[in-house]
Amino acid sequence: MIKVDEKGFYGKFGGAYIPEMLHPNIEELKENYEAIMASQEFQDEFRGLLKDYVGRPTPLYFASRLSEKYGAKIYLKREDLCHTGAHKVNNTIGQIILAKKLGKKRIIAETGAGQHGVATATVCALMGMECTVYMGEIDIARQHPNVERMKILGAKVVPATSGSKTLKDATNEAMRAWINNPVDTHYIIGSVVGPHPYPEMVARFQSVISEEMKWQLKEKEGRENPDIVIACVGGGSNAAGAFYHYYNTPEVRLVAAEAAGLGVLSGKSAATTVLGTPGVLHGSKTILMQTEDGQVVEPHSISAGLDYPGIGPVHAHLFDVGRAEFVAVEDKDAMAAGIELSQLEGIIPAIESAHALHALNMIEYSKEDVIVINLSGRGDKDLDTYIKWGGY
Amino acid sequence: MNRIHTLFETKKARVLSIYFTAGFPALEDTFPIMEAAQAGGADIIEIGVPYSDPVADGPTIQDSNMIALENGISLKKIFDQLKGFRAKIHIPVVMMGYLNPIIQYGMEAFCQKCKEVGVDGLILPDLPMQQYQDDYKELFEQYGLVNTFLISPQTSEKRIREIDENTSGFIYMVSSHSTTGAKTGISEEQIAYFERVKAMNLKNPRLIGFGISDSETFTTASNYSNGAIIGSAFIKTVKDSKNLSEDIQKYIQSVVN
Fold first, then answer.
1. Which of A50, A172, A215, A356 is most buried (CB neighbours < 10 A)?
2. Mean pLDDT of the residues in chain B
3. Which residue, among A134, A175, A179, would best test binding to B if mutated, counting the most B CBs under 10 Å from its CB?
4. CA-CA distance, B150 to B129, in Å (whole number)?
5. How close does chain A come to B124, measured CA to CA in Å?
6. CB pairs below 8 Å between A and B: how many?
7. Inter-residue contact A284 to A193 (CB < 8 Å)
8. How far is residue B35's CA from residue B31's CA, in Å, rounded to a whole number?
């Protein structure tokens, strides 16, 4: 069974390794989130906003030319059509309603490429809540349009100047900010990482992806279960959402595409399950990239959303027990897959999602197999990278 | 008997614990800093084990961690530096660090090594009580290591009692809801929290840390507890020092006298 236990563990991974200063915040969340999420009032508001504001359900699109090329029945779950351009908003909508119910006045968040920051700034504007987003100084420089988007939405963007000045350090800064403002502030974590209950809570908000996949496949294929689900994994929130309702359906193969960067052995990679070892990062026990002395290593991927040295504890568990197949996709292959989808289907994917597309070249399947690829985001934010890359 | 227990049996007030980052400002400064801290009048020494992602620490300690790591410090190296330190240092010594580097070293190997060199206790800020009890309590006890938990102004009375039950050395009272080195001075609100905890008559002694930097804050904190812990302010002292031994002794004397 793939299921979180009472202490927040998925098998050996998870838990809540946090400084005592955060204990009351985490306890408050742990004790309340399930009851709040189960309430009719919450569900009405959450479902209502997902429908009318985010634009759900997102289509499950049969990609006929892609299918023809690869020799399988390939569907794309179109999370790229969500408001703000990626699946991230499913989680921020859920968490901001939760924060309101907990009586919080301020929201803080971390962001890497800025997608989660934008999704957070968006829902804060929607709810009229004060929003501060922590972002690595280096990411601020290389993701300028998203910084401006957050500011237009009324959020304050604070540079994380410590450590390597990227996503992991932005996460550290957000945690520090939470320690400094424990009472009135809610921290919206953007992925299935962090201390329990975050990984499970975020996965549940994202599980709307596989919930829709089931009834959409039933309509189109006459069965709820595909043969294979493929998603990319950085921290792993879109993958957790796409896998969630299939965790315990062993006949559905789950494929997680990690970012190999310049190559797994190049020293410039983010292939956590290949290069990582068990350890503790950002409040949970998981698999992470580190030196033999236990210092966290800075990963590399062309896609900022996959540029994280760990993976969510649920993915560490799926890897550990062999429930999911992990493939490591190099920058160049992801870029080629992104350009291929653009020209076969008229959809420019986010480079993160392009990693999932390339997995079609790395796994085995047959002509009759129904494959769903979670197209987690659109490529607008990546235009600069596509342009610099060329080859189209 | 553990040196931490012995200390609090003989000294009940104005206990001063000094935190420093191992391998900072220079790689080989670890032992000289300990020697100078003892000579200056510190009662406990906390050796900070550097980590790339210290979430409970403010910029001063973060920077010292980064520099120490750049200098080439590691847990292995720290234990090398600590070999034989008990020939000269007789006060209690505590290792303070985040879990991940220790897990990579191996928790049992770490405990064994602590005992071997003469470390008395541990402060692991990201090891919560539950995980401690589930995974490490027996191990720490087996090697005679006293584990210290933190409490903050947000910690409930019930949890403070639980922590008191599960502690046998001292309780680390974080003075405000903040990371290290974030605030200076002590407010009315903090005094109210100090008084509230004092009135609980806990079985363990309490040391107040975070925001303690000089004689005045040390004395105020000591009025409501058994003493205090200085970290960031001490790091600042050693950072700019041209003569470590002299500056450290001068600084500590200025705090305690």
1. A356
2. 96
3. A179
4. 10
5. 9
6. 112
7. yes
8. 6
Domain spans, chain B: 15-149+211-252
Condensed to tens digits (0 to 9), the pLDDT of residues B130-150 reads: 999 999 999 999 999 999 999
* A47-75 as b/e: b if 16+ CB within 10 A: eebbeeebebbbebbebeebbeebebbbb
Note whether A291 and A277 are same-domain residues.
yes
Separation of alpha carbons A240 and A205, rounded Å: 10
Cα distances (Å, whole numbers) of residue A358 to A49, A85, A302, A381 = 33, 21, 14, 20
pLDDT band at A277 (very low <50, low <70, confident <90, very high): very high
User: Which secondary-structure segment (H or E) carries B170?
Assistant: none
Which residue of A15, A24, A179 is in closest CB contact with B56?
Answer: A179
**What share of chain A in percent tops pLDDT 70?**
100
Q: Please check whether residue B247 touches A, CB under 8 A.
A: no
Pairing of strands A9-10, A13-14: antiparallel
- Domain-ending residue, one of A173, A197, A221: A197
Q: Does residue A164 have an active-site annotation?
A: no
> To the nearest whole angstrom, how far is the Cα of A38 from the nearest Cα of chain B?
27
Residues of chain A contacting residue B51, judged by C-beta atoms under 8 Å apart: 294-295
**Residues A212 and A246 grouped into a single domain:** yes
Do A161 and A247 reside in the same domain of the chain? no
Question: Is residue A165 among the annotated active site residues?
Answer: no
Which two tokens mark A257?
A: 């595409």
Of B29, B35, B43, B57, which residue is the catalytic one? B57
Which residue in A30, A73, A77, A88 is the catalytic one?
Answer: A88
Q: State how far the Cα of A364 lies from the Cα of B255, in Å rounded to an integer.
A: 69
Residue B184 has pLDDT above 80, yes or no: no
Residues A40, A45: Cα–Cα separation, whole Å: 9
A20 part of contact set with chain B, CB < 8 Å: yes
Tokens of A369: 């197999």
pLDDT computed for residue A222 by the predictor: 98
Query: Would you call A279 an interface residue with chain B, using a CB distance cutoff of 8 Å?
Result: yes
Residues A240, A309: one domain? yes
Q: Are B131 and A283 within 8 A, CB to CB?
A: no
CB B184, CB B60: distance < 8 Å: no
